[in-house]
């Protein structure tokens, strides 16, 4: 308020004092003149002097008018003296008329100066507001626009403040859709102006405005404040509007791009990933987002379609199924797929649809989507032709895409392309890996008469590269052989070495009269391979010895197997031999043990004992405890697995493999004995 | 001199392998100090064997300073200790 008062002071000084003094002099002259006239010729008409103060009040200040009024009053009394008028009723009436007239003139002068001051202040303030860079509009309590500066006109998209002020309100509000920051429509009740008029303080409000006629999207922050009348009711609303479109846009771009990066690197399942990327674009960037990729037959297949309305998504999918496009088609996605150039159509004219779509029914359906503006960006990898297109369409929101949008959308397409390429390579490799991995494991374990067999295989990692662990079981001369092994290294070299070791061992064991001689044979084979080819394994040769089995154990640099005895006590069996492939001359000592009915032998790789938990490694002692009293092979392995799952923290680091074999009681013999008895 | 601390397993073996390969390529006598090793798995053992092979092929000496008993047991287990020069004191190497 103090600024206003100071402004008023300046206005008073700014007035023209010469003009006011001349008016005062003229008023006085009139009073004196009329008094003289009254005294000399026109008797009994002294009230006419009141014209003096009135004339003065037209131009001069309140005080100057008061001076003239006093002069007029004095002249009335003086004229009575000059004219020797008796002091009667007439005399007092005249005096009252002049006094009242003078007072009215003074009040008129006062009101006039006040009004002109206010006008001057108003003019100065509006001049100041007009020069402000901030957009300011003033509305009355009926939402009528009273004032807007040029910045406001520019912000609101009008040529000048005059154009804005003369545009009818229906047109001002009616040409745009208003949304809150989270995308929901903003009702008229929730406008900052409406809230201020209800006596609320809305604070800064972020609003997204889409102009219907041009499809242009703007972001604004409106700070609205009320100006109250003497009764405290808001009569005016002053709004300062800031256009934050550029800032908002760049925020949005950064957010979408960084989320795109995250989503694309989060998964190797590219179809799912592309659906998520399409989801990121809706509704902030576009009303629709779709991803299409050509298949081997050249049909452009929809991989993802996203819209905030599920019914519309279904509609678009159906449309895609009914009218599949082919890579050889003219224009549209096919064109982008062929030449790799992004396509921006700021406004889609109906003729364009007519030209592109021959089928009248299809044309009607597409028209129904109400597409307004579209961008089709290629999904390109580092090399090669585009592997698909990502399309962005604006329809009901009325937004149109610009060159600035095009850059962002092309970048999204590029990133998606790289991610798809990586995912495809990954998938190819995974397929190879899975195929090899399957080849590493026996298709099915054989039935071994007199034994029960179970295996555990836990490859590390979700999309596991081929593990270096393997197991095998097969018939050899004089009995059976079971093997668990572990090849050093990882990835494809380890995979090929794993396959090699398993097959060499199996072939050598089946051909050789002494199956366990296959181990030194494999050692030489591995040693002679170029480059490091190291392998550890535990092989057990099982022979029938009457009712019992005899197990001959060889461990080449491998953890010793556990035998779970009939007492339920697990004990390590065998002694250490050399790691295979390390040296030409190696030592593979044999240990023979008897396996009675119900007794178990458990072979495992170091993935079991080396598993990492909070208390260090799983270790042999935990394994031994887990196996205590195990009777069935399945049970023994389940205990190992449960123990590992409970123990492990974080991702499983290494492959884990185990094989358990139990000597069965001679059930048939038992039954016969029982019936004989 | 390559001194190893902590665990040598699938996750860390590549660091060890790179250090050993580098030392052998420079033609130095390689002293692998395993006194501070807490754990070593088959992958780690394989890296030691590879280094031993590479240094004998390159004609350089390869000496291992004895690991703690729990780890050294593995060297015995795979027949490595008898084929390596194992010392208790690095200055003796």
Low-confidence stretches of chain A: 10-14, 668-677
Tally of domains of chain B: 1
What coarse outline of chain A follows from CA principal-axis ratios? elongated
Cα(first) to Cα(last) distance of chain B is: 10 Å
Could you tell me the number of beta strands of chain A? 25
The CATH top-level class label of chain B: Alpha Beta
Rg of chain A, Cα atoms, Å:
49 Å
Coarse shape of chain B: globular
Q: Helicity level of chain B, as a percent range? A: 40-55%
What is the CATH fold-level name of chain B? Transcription Regulator spoIIAA
Question: Averaging pLDDT over every residue of chain B, what do you get?
Answer: 88
* Helix percentage of chain A: 40-55%
CATH architecture of chain B: 2-Layer Sandwich
> CATH H level of chain B: which superfamily?
STAS domain
Summarize the biggest pleated sheet of chain A: 6 strands, antiparallel
Report the portion of residues of chain B in β strands: 25-35%
Identify the strand order in the major beta sheet of chain B.
1-2-3-4
Summary tags:
heterodimer, A: 677 residues, alpha+beta, Beta-Lactamase, 4 domains, six-stranded antiparallel sheet, 25 strands, 23% strand, B: 93 residues, alpha/beta, Transcription Regulator spoIIAA, four-stranded parallel sheet, 3 helices, 4 strands
3D structure, described in words:
The complex is a heterodimer of chains A (677) and B (93). Helices cover 46% and strands 23% of the residues of chain A. Chain A is α+β, with helices and mostly antiparallel strands and 677 residues long. Chain A has a six-stranded antiparallel sheet. In chain A, strands 9-8-7-12-11-10 form a six-stranded antiparallel sheet, with helices on both faces. In chain A, strand 4 (204-211) and strand 5 (217-228) form a beta hairpin. A four-stranded parallel sheet of chain B has the order 1-2-3-4. Chain B has 93 residues and is α/β, with parallel strands linked by helices. Chain B has helices at 13-25, 42-58, 69-77, and strands at 2-8, 30-40, 62-65, 85-87. At the A-B interface, strand 20 and strand 24 of A face helix 2 of B.
């Amino acid at each position: 308020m103090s600024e206003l008062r100071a402004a008023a002071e300046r206005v008073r000084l700014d007035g023209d004092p010469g003009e006011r003094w001349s008016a005062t002099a003229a008023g006085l002259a009139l009073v004196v003149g009329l008094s003289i006239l009254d005294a000399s010729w026109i008797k009994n008409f002294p009230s006419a002097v009141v014209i003096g103060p009135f004339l003065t009040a037209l131009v001069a200040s309140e005080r100057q008018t008061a001076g003239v009024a006093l002069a007029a009053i004095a002249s009335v009394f003086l004229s009575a003296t000059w004219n020797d008028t008796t002091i009667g009723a007439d005399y007092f009436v005249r005096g009252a008329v002049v006094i009242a007239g003078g007072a009215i003139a003074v009040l008129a002068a006062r009101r006039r100066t006040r009004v002109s001051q206010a006008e001057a202040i108003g003019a100065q303030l509006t001049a100041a507001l007009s020069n402000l860079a901030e957009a300011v509009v003033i509305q009355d309590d009926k939402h009528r626009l009273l004032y807007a500066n040029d910045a406001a006109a520019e912000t609101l998209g009008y040529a000048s403040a005059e154009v804005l002020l003369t545009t009818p309100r229906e047109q001002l509000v009616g040409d745009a859709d208003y949304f809150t920051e989270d995308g929901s429509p903003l009702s008229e009740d929730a406008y900052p102006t409406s809230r201020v008029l209800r006596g609320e303080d809305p604070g800064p409000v972020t609003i997204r405005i889409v102009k219907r006629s041009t499809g242009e999207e703007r972001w604004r922050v409106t700070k609205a404040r009320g100006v109250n009348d003497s009764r405290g009711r808001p009569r005016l609303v002053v709004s300062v509007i800031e256009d934050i479109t550029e800032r908002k846009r760049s925020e949005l771009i950064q957010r979408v791009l960084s989320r795109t990066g995250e989503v694309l690197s989060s998964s190797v399942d590219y179809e799912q990933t592309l659906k998520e990327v399409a989801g990121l674009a809706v509704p902030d960037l576009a009303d629709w987002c779709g991803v299409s990729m050509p298949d081997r037959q050249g049909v452009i297949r929809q991989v993802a379609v996203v819209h905030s309305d599920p019914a519309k998504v279904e509609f678009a999918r159906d449309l895609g199924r009914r009218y599949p496009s082919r890579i050889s088609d003219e224009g549209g996605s096919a064109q982008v797929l062929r030449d790799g150039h992004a396509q921006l159509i700021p406004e889609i004219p109906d003729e364009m649809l007519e030209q592109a779509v021959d089928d009248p029914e299809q044309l009607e359906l597409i028209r129904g989507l109400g597409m307004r503006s579209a961008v089709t960006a290629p999904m390109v990898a580092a090399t090669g032709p585009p592997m698909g297109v990502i399309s962005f369409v604006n329809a009901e929101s009325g937004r149109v895409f610009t060159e600035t949008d095009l850059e962002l959308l092309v970048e999204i397409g590029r990133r998606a392309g790289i991610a798809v390429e990586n995912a495809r390579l990954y998938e190819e490799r995974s397929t190879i890996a899975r195929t090899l991995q399957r080849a590493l494991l026996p298709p099915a374990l054989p039935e071994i008469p007199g034994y029960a067999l179970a295996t555990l295989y836990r490859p590390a990692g979700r999309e596991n590269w081929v593990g270096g662990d393997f197991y095998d079981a097969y018939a050899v001369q004089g009995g059976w052989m079971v093997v668990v092994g572990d090849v050093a290294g990882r990835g494809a070299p380890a995979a090929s070495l794993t396959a090699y070791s398993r097959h060499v061992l199996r072939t050598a064991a089946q051909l050789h009269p002494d199956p366990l001689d296959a181990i030194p044979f494999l050692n030489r084979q591995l040693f002679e391979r170029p480059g490091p080819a190291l392998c550890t394994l535990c092989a057990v040769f099982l022979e029938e010895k009457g009712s019992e089995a005899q197990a001959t154990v060889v461990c080449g640099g491998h953890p010793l197997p556990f035998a779970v005895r009939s007492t339920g006590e697990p004990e390590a069996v065998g002694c250490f031999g050399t790691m295979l492939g390390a040296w030409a001359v190696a030592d593979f000592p044999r240990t023979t043990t008897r396996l009675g009915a119900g007794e178990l032998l458990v072979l495992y790789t170091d993935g079991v004992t080396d598993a990492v938990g909070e208390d260090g490694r799983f270790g042999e002692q935990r394994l031994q405890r887990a196996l205590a009293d195990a009777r069935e092979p399945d049970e023994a392995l389940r205990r190992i697995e449960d123990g590992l799952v409970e123990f492990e923290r974080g991702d499983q680091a290494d492959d884990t493999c185990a094989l358990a074999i139990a000597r069965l009681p001679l059930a048939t013999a038992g039954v016969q004995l029982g019936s004989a008895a | 001199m390559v001194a190893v601390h902590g665990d040598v397993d699938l996750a860390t073996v590549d660091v060890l392998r790179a250090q050993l390969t580098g030392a052998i390529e420079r033609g130095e006598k390689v002293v692998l100090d395993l006194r501070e090793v807490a754990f070593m798995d088959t992958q780690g053992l394989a890296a030691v064997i590879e280094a031993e092979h590479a240094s004998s092929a390159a004609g350089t000496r390869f000496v291992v300073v004895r690991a703690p008993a729990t780890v050294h047991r593995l060297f015995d287990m795979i027949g490595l200790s008898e084929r390596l020069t194992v010392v208790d004191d690095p200055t003796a190497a």
